Structure prediction request, 335 residues.
Amino acid sequence: MVGIGIVGMGYWGKNHLTIYKSLLFEKKIDYLKICDIDEERVKEISEINSIDYTTNIKELLNDDKITAVAIITPSSTHYELSKLSLESGKDVFVEKPITLKSDNARKLIDLAKQKRRILMVGHLFRYHPAVEEIKKRMDIGEFGKIQMILSFRLALGVPKKDMGVILALAVHDLDLTCYLLNKKEPESILVDNGKFNQEVVTEITNISLNFDNNTKGYIMESWNIPIYGKRRELLIIGSEKSGYVNYLTPSEYQIFDSSIRSSKVNDKVIFEKHNNGIHKIVIEYKEPLKQEILHFIKCIETRTAPNSDGLVGYNAVRMCEKAILSAEKNERIYF
Prediction:
């Protein structure tokens, strides 16, 4: 039996609820209950969806029908709620960042191991269908040597007050860059931040990552840019081919069969531009959040480690800490 308790009925929590409710209807889970400290809100959502609810996390965790908990709450609460859930013997899905401090993430990993529980972190873009397809091509060497990975998340939005764009946005791309390169972490990181509306909250970040073999990662994140509407892009530049993903169109990606090639003529190096066109690849639409949740359920049923387990979450937060330190010291930080 798989019984899910969702903790947190804010904007993103309701998205989780929509998918879990569909899975309950499809009989892929057996029971569903929601929890939020705002009784008026959670009661209304419960009545609309005909789902049991509680305002008390301990009541949820004492429910024998609940075997796993999805924690979709403010980041500052992730550690305590995950700890409490693991101690209660529940498998845990927690949204990114797993915690605000890497030391606490390590404690959750150790606790999950001790309790023999699944601990999965919501690094959503690992489950984006276009990213999965691009990674397959990278892993077989189709792009040649990877020279650069560039990531952009730009929009105009109300700034958060509890964290800046590094922990709120760049945590995605720090993880994803390493995931695509099959690396735990970069060799070094250099960061420049900007703050405009609040003295202590970063609203734009530019991140430079160095990996071995002269591979680079470049990340730009901001919620202070009105120009594009929303811009969510991933670019992979290889010595033979390059790839492009627009996260807002998950049913396609592009392959650029273009590169710079060199040859020697009379002891001189000659560079030429090779261009064999752009290929749009259409793939089956799969909602990334649903793919992520289905993966969590599979891990619960098979007792296998998630693709984005606690260690992935720990490494992502640790990279965020190094990024913040780099900006504070105005220098490149080595891992």
